[in-house]
Amino acid sequence: MYTERKPIKINEAVEAVLQFAKEGELEYVSINDSDGRILKQPIKADHDIPPFDRSPLDGFAIRSEDTVDASRETPIELEVIETVGAGAIAKRVPKQGQVIRIMTGAEMPEGTDAIVMFELTKEIERDGKTFIELKRSFKPGDNISFKAEETKTDDILVEAGRKVDPGVKALLATFGYNKVPVGKKPIIGVYATGTELLDVEEPLEPGKIRNSNSYMITSQILKAGAVPKYYGKLVDDFDRCYEAVVNALDEVDVLITTGGVSVGDFDYLPAIYEKLGANVLFNKIAMRPGSVTTVAEYKGKLLFGLSGNPSACYVGFELLTRPWVQLYLGNPKPHLQKVQGILKADFPKPNPFVRFIRSKMTIEEGKIFAEPVGLDKSGVVTSLANSDALVVLPGGTRGFKKGDVVDVLLLNGEGSSEILEK
Amino acid sequence: MYTERKPIKINEAVEAVLQFAKEGELEYVSINDSDGRILKQPIKADHDIPPFDRSPLDGFAIRSEDTVDASRETPIELEVIETVGAGAIAKRVPKQGQVIRIMTGAEMPEGTDAIVMFELTKEIERDGKTFIELKRSFKPGDNISFKAEETKTDDILVEAGRKVDPGVKALLATFGYNKVPVGKKPIIGVYATGTELLDVEEPLEPGKIRNSNSYMITSQILKAGAVPKYYGKLVDDFDRCYEAVVNALDEVDVLITTGGVSVGDFDYLPAIYEKLGANVLFNKIAMRPGSVTTVAEYKGKLLFGLSGNPSACYVGFELLTRPWVQLYLGNPKPHLQKVQGILKADFPKPNPFVRFIRSKMTIEEGKIFAEPVGLDKSGVVTSLANSDALVVLPGGTRGFKKGDVVDVLLLNGEGSSEILEK
């Protein structure tokens, strides 16, 4: 039976969902397994960088006072008494006229106060001793990397909420984070609905199509940093569906269903929410695609009833589920990054409701452009695979022209703390 | 002993490396494990989309000829004789005045040629039968999604070389790719050099620092899509170093060493290349940082001798090793994506050689900006963690001002088929 639903705005929907945001626990993982995880604590320096005065190059550690009279006309000779490599400590203390050969990264030997690079010296062997010839003077401190000049103990180097990437991992290693405090991943259950759905390995049958949404959503869940748990298809029987949903809810932090939220006779989800006694936050959003997207809450857990339409399903996850996941992980920028871009093609359709168009972003001459993909019917399928952005066209607008400036949500961007404007 | 080296240009270095590019084998992985992998074959439609004429909404399948006289003033009644859900096939064929209730995605029943959505009908129960009232006429084909209107069998939907993301995965599922043909990941060995290096779990000692490069490189290798194999530190003994390198070469596709390529007394790599009889492609690049970056080839395998300086090590991997990995995987866009951006800060230093500055990219009002990070000494460490781009300043230039337009290499971009200009 067709029932009127009251649509709410997408921002209201996002806010309704995030009222049930909760931050997940902290867990420690080995630094070797930390790639892509979200830091739950800032990275703090456990020591100064450099940890000691050191040589930034391969050369000789000298007493600068010995070089005061050195010049091109009056070169001086200094005796090399020891060689010290990085990681070693010089054993001797140079006296007047003596130097220590030193490698990049080695600690400044006691009694020395400047470094001369190899290239400025000439080595001389004489009487079984090694000397260097110098043709210029040096000042105390020349070419030394001083203790703590880069970073001091207890400095905060990376804030909590950042994702571990190669540079962050370098800092974790530098500061001894053998175990890394990260946000525990939420478990997201996925149920597909629809008797028309075949699994990927099944041959095609009349009237049926392959289930693509579950694979797509699983991939979106992984990309968002959570753990997908795919339960298969809900069968075409209300009582068994109800039981399946109740059982899954025990095992997951969030449950996603794809399909079954529209007004069809076999769209069981609304009735399941009702029988559960779940709190339906909304069952219609004034947007395209995905207007039937429904979210309900039951004992603090969210049930995302995403549309069975692939584009709507995709958009519903990115706009509603992903921010919940990001906050759970501890990312303070849970929303898709929004930038301005220039439309690369006309979009003549009117937009009675806000529209999210799967698009391909390009950068040309330092400017962002976005081209809707799949505008014609033949592009519907490939638009799934060729998008890295969503063009946002506000509701109540009449069509847009190539060259118009529009909002663009980046699907691979760094995230934003702002939701779409109210 | 200091030896003069002949620097080559970065583009020449990249070209020299890619002369030894080879494409890795194809392997099949389960669709469930395909996220982030590079497709080795295009995705081809194994059937039409839609596979049959179908209803795109919940409503009634009608014979349009029955509605010719329907209007607001003269509504008509049609009898509902069956309900067909998605995935099912109608059992009956409507005769004049009869319709079939149909759900989204269901195949068009025989004898019907248009769909009427629920919202345009009024249902009437009478004499144990169900009728709908219609107040307008419909034309043949109204609201039908026709077979093959989106995609035809054998259409190529995604080219080889693309990375599997949620949208690509949806297509893989749609077209029955239970096993996905992807590029086999190369194995990249990593050896650190330097007696000054402590492992991440070791306490600090005088004169020593923690090994951050190995963790950083391992993370870069993972991000590039390859398999890192970390061998630990090369010990401070030439013969044992040599043996370690020889043994590792047997087990990997590429061997990276960090450090040990400069002119220090314990920089063994040049001598190891020599003893191996390896073909040293270059041992100096006219760039900052990373001028000592060395690459050698031995029996078709590349040995990347990256600098021990963390920034130089990072840049060396991204510019030289990563493209080799991408070509191995089958990505036709192996290089970092290059865009133009606006400098957000002065960079007063002269650039005798091309300079790659770790930078943070932002997008403001649709334009790309890049701000160098770690310009002062106190930023050296954090610059590792806060960069997502490299600003490129050409050699032979005298300093740049805030607002200048510069080339920017994106560290998280989609890739490019072009190397830096010659």
Automatic annotation (TrEMBL), chains A, B:
UniProt domain MoaB/Mog: residue ranges: 189-327
Enzyme Commission number: 2.10.1.1
Cofactor(s) needed for function: Mg(2+)
GO biological process: Mo-molybdopterin cofactor biosynthetic process
Keywords: Magnesium, Metal-binding, Molybdenum, Molybdenum cofactor biosynthesis, Transferase
Pathway given in the UniProt record: Cofactor biosynthesis; molybdopterin biosynthesis
Gene3D superfamilies: MoaB/Mog-like domain, MoeA, C-terminal, domain IV, Molybdopterin biosynthesis moea protein, domain 2, Molybdopterin biosynthesis moea protein, domain 3
CDD domains named among the record's database cross-references: MoeA (cd00887)
Pfam families the UniProt entry points to: MoCF_biosynth, MoeA_C, MoeA_N
Reactions catalysed, as given in the entry: adenylyl-molybdopterin + molybdate = Mo-molybdopterin + AMP + H(+)
Gene Ontology CC: cytosol
InterPro entries named in the record: MoaB/Mog-like_dom_sf, MoaB/Mog_dom, MoeA-like, MoeA_C_domain_IV, MoeA_C_domain_IV_sf, MoeA_linker/N, MoeA_linker/N_sf
MF (Gene Ontology): metal ion binding; molybdopterin molybdotransferase activity
Top-rank taxon, per record: Bacteria
Keyword Magnesium among UniProt keywords: yes
Function of the protein: Catalyzes the insertion of molybdate into adenylated molybdopterin with the concomitant release of AMP.
NCBIfam families given in the database record: Glp_gephyrin, molyb_syn
Family: Belongs to the MoeA family.
Protein name: Molybdopterin molybdenumtransferase
